[in-house]
Write a structure and sequence with these properties.
It contains three helices and ten strands; from the N terminus they run αβαβββββββββα. It has 237 residues and is an alpha+beta fold. It has a single domain, classed as OB fold (Dihydrolipoamide Acetyltransferase, E2P) (Beta Barrel). The N and C termini lie far apart (35 Å). Keywords: Membrane, Transmembrane, Transmembrane helix.
Length: 237
Amino acid sequence: MLAFLGEILMNKKRGIALILVSVVLLAVVYFVMPSTFSANENSQNKSSEIIQGSYAASKTQMSWMVSYYYYPKNFQELIQSGHLVYSGEVVGVQPAPYDNYPMTLAKVKVDKIIRGDSNLKGQIINVLFAGGDIKENDFKSTMTDSPIAPSNKTITVEYSGTKLPENGDKIAGIMNKASTGTNGIKDDFWMFVAPGSVFFKDDDNLYKRPKGFKSPDNNDQTINKSLTQLIEEKKTS
């Protein structure tokens, strides 16, 4: 598949590889090597060819590599890394594959704004995740690979250390807004600043990074608790 910090700088293909961090998806200044996503008129978003609203019956698990740079020294630095820190609920998902990479665009109803534009509270925003549905004959596990199969079958790709969003998920994230046209998406949307900057609310009411994700300094448990506390202390009004 997330994508923690600053303005995302990527060339077209390298940027997509680094964010396969979905999320969302699919978004990197502090954690992932900087570069910039840019729209490419020859690279079409093929989500219209895929059944929307749910994932394929089985998931194809894929490993992926992320290079970490300027990892935040503490929780406060992490929070300051994004333009928007929020909590909300996933109310819709749709495939948004781009340039042979599976991505998912989730609609999230914002519940609380921890940092950023308070006018977004109560609004539905688009959030890009790494991974999701894609045709087998469109999917390449790396930029130089051939498609994994000459088939028009839709598969669901989920990257290690990430989680695909589903309707009803309670999530929190640290994000930056994407430039218009990024990944061939015409609507405004947000990208997680880096892998590990998306949190899913678990059965124990803690917002947690996806299972399998490990930050370079192994501080996931502390960050999970700190973010949960920050959200709980934030007034809803």
